[in-house]
Amino acid sequence: MQTTARSTTPIALTIAGSDSGGGAGIQADLKTFAALGVYGCSAISSLTAQNTQGVQAVLPIAPSFVQAQIHSVMSDIGVSAIKTGMLATADIIAAVAESLKDFAQIPLVVDPVMVATSGDRLLAQDAIQILIARLIPHATVITPYLHEAAVLLQTHVAQDLAQMQRQGEQLLALGARAVLMKGGHSEAQEATDLLVTPEGCFAFSAPRLATRNTHGTGCTLASAIAAGLAQGMTLQAAVQAAKNYLQGALAASAQLHIGTGAGPVHHFHSFY
Asked: What tens digit of pLDDT does each residue of 11-30 get?
């Protein structure tokens, strides 16, 4: 499979599930890309029936059709970065990995989506080892939050920055070029993420904000990183820009009144 010549327009492809409530998944990804000046394409891996209260149903897409979507985009559109989110099953993960094997030169952000903000499980148990073996080794960066990192490593949840760094280094050994350990679910006063790379560990901190509108934060952060990479930023610069963007989206989320549960962040906070 060959792509067309690289476009001068920054373009990102999200391969993820669809959130019918609009706050996470490809909906959050495409909103983030648009807000940050990046053209977004998508390949839908699963359909979900969900809202601010939780996930009511999940319908995985046939792996061959996930591949067909990826092929359609990659054979015609000059994608500058790729982000994966909810992939749901082992067969879909394997199909995505197979589809992307010829595009190692394109930055790949892997968000190992396993559990929704509501606590609903989004990744089948048998898919975790396929994720580790087939997709993570090709990632420019993986972006687990603390519980996801613990599941990947089959260990306890990190309790402090030292443990976060240690687990990030263990995840780095799985083959990814960098690991962003997301500390947003910790109990610390500041939300600190650690970017663990072969060159060292870099901290990105922001004040913790009191809001119930946190639906889709992981999708949004990973997509913002992909947007930065699509625009030619270094990984550290992309992470910092993404962190700043998400902080603004969280701070402005109270302007939105969506649903009765965990509402979405305000992706277009800089526009209205």
From this structure: 999 999 999 999 999 999 99
For the question of residue 182 being annotated catalytic, the response is yes
Q: Which of 218, 220, 228, 263 is catalytic?
A: 218
* 217: annotated active-site residue: yes
The catalytically annotated residue of 84, 117, 140, 217 is 217
Instruction: Let me know if 218 is a catalytic residue.
Output: yes
- The answer to whether 31 is a known catalytic residue is no
Contact 2, 238 (CB under 8 A): no
CATH architecture of 11-255: 3-Layer(aba) Sandwich (3.40)
Domain boundaries, the chain: 11-255
| pLDDT, tens digit (0-9, with 9 covering 90-100), for 187-230 | 667 889 999 999 999 999 999 888 899 999 999 999 999 999 99
Which residue type does 233 have? M
Question: Strand order in 200-207's β-sheet?
Answer: 54-60, 39-51, 11-19, 81-84, 108-110, 141-142, 179-181, 190-197, 200-207
Whole-model pTM over 0.70: yes
> Could you tell me whether strands 179-181 and 190-197 are parallel, antiparallel, or unpaired per DSSP bridges?
antiparallel
Choose, from 52, 85, 168, 182, the residue flagged as catalytic.
182
